Amino acid sequence: MWKVAKRGCRMFMRKVLHFSPRLAERFLWRVPHAAYCNKQNDKQSDCVDKPPGYVAPLHALMAKEAEDYLANLDEDGLNKMEEIKELMEKLRLENKRVPDEIPPKAWKQLITEHQTYSSRVRLLNKLFLDEVRQRKDAMKKREKAKIRQELNERKTEHPSFSINVPRRIKEARGWKGIQTMKSDIKVVIDLDIEQNMREEVAVFDQIQMLWSDNLKHLQPLNIHLTSINKNNRLRQIFQAEKSVFVNTHEKDFKEVFPDEDLVYLSPDGPALKQFDPNCTYIIGGLADLSPKNRVTFGKARKLGIRCASFPIRKYCDLSIRSPCTVLTLNCVYGILQDMYLHHSWTTAFRNNLRSSFFLYEDTLAQQKSEVLEKEWSRTFERNWKSLRSTKY
């Protein structure tokens, strides 16, 4: 246990003390520029193409200083370098960790700072591990570049799909998108409703969920977003992304669709007696995050359009938890999809309503199961008492 803690502490300290040269230059060491390089020489030699006022990073300055030191070595320094080379050959013969190449900065450290055998072996071991790590990083970069090149080649085969996903998923999404655009069943989302920034973001998220669920459903519908200029986030995304498979209109839905088949869905409207698949249903692009009174119902009455709601009270027992009948955009859209597919309110409500809504069929089944459990427990207790009373 002590060894594990010691190793973890050592790794933590190594990470803490390992700063990148740029961070070290910025926060730790405030070394004057003249201590490492002369500005005039730097402008004449290395910084010819650099902009005025350019300051070389600290690691470059230290590397340059180490190269200058190695170029001007005295006899003592040359003798130490020969000793280090002999030590490296000896360690290689003993199959110990020795790097293939030593940078000038490490040579300077070996000559000036590390004088003993153990310290030199320790530094050579560290340089070997750094070299292995650099090779691994280079291999990973090459593999990533190869994968990126393969993905770009696949993109050129199918230029209409710009998302980096496997080919079969692209084809499935493409066919599903074509099915949605060719569908005769139209659902309109009205965005011409005054909202604050928070509600606009909520509507944007719900429409994204609605669009992704539409491509996965067995019965995808043709989505029409009207008054798209009212929501800037949606307008920017649908202008930038071309493969969204959603129809957008800058005009109001009254100017795009005829009034005869329009039905505005509102929680305050009368319940639908019969679901008509030939009608075009309108969902208000509204997120009820703040209390609002009959916004969609009032708009439908003002425009003279038929208004209706889902028969939730007929199929759900609201007396158990008495939930609010206001639903989100993706929930309303999911109910419409299941109604077009199954033609059953119970399956549509069971698949899309949250757990606080209890269907009458489910509550009856639950009551029956509770009665059966009580009867089973009584019979079990009766049999257990009879078994205990019998004498063997």
Summarize the structure in words.
Helix 9 packs parallel to helix 14. Helix 10 (232-240) links the parallel strand 2 (222-226) and strand 3 (247-249). The protein is elongated, with a radius of gyration of 37 Å. It has a six-stranded parallel beta sheet with strand order 3-2-1-5-4-6, sandwiched between helices. The chain has helices at residues 2-17, 21-28, 39-44, 58-71, 75-93, 104-112, 117-157, 167-181, 197-216, 232-240, 253-256, 295-303, 312-315, 329-342, 345-352, 360-389; strands at 186-190, 222-226, 247-249, 262-265, 280-284, 306-308, 316-317, 358-359. The longest helix is centred in the middle third of the chain and has 41 residues, at 117-157. By secondary structure, the protein is of the alpha/beta class. The model is unreliable at 25-48 and 157-163 (pLDDT under 50).
Quick structural overview:
Helix content is 58%, strand content 7%.
